[in-house]
Amino acid sequence: MFRPTRQDPCPVVVWIHGGAFIRGDRKKMPEQYGARISRGIAVASIECRLSHEATFPAQLLDVRAAIRYLRSHAASPGIAPDALGLWGA
Predict the structure, then answer these.
(1) Between the CA of residue 45 and those of 10, 26, 67, 73, what are the distances in Å?
(2) Residue 65 has pLDDT above 90, yes or no
(3) CA distance 47 to 63
């Protein structure tokens, strides 16, 4: 997770990598994530199974599980659990 330096809970954008769940890497984030961090928004890049590992809707379930995890553990990284958005390619 990339987080701004502010102390209060900040909003978070969940990054879902591109590749139609066929290929992709959560570590390859677009350059725009830096602009969000500079505006006080955290960016969380999540992992999900690709289609050769599990058939759909497994990928959707992985995204939902990641969001539930972020919301339930929001205090640790200092994110606002009720201010969450999705962003992907």
Answers:
(1) 16, 6, 11, 15
(2) yes
(3) 8
The number of residues in the chain equals: 89
Edge-to-edge strand order for the sheet containing 79-88? 42-45, 10-16, 79-88
- Mean local confidence (pLDDT), 2-22: 79
Cis geometry, peptide bond prior to residue 77 (ω within 30 degrees of 0): no
Which of 12, 37, 15 has its CA nearest to residue 24? 15
DSSP-based three-state secondary structure for 26: coil
DSSP state of 2: B
Domain ranges for the chain = 10-88
Taking alpha carbons only, the member of 44, 53, 56, 55 closest to residue 17 is: 44
Strand partners, 42: 12
Predicted model pTM: 0.79
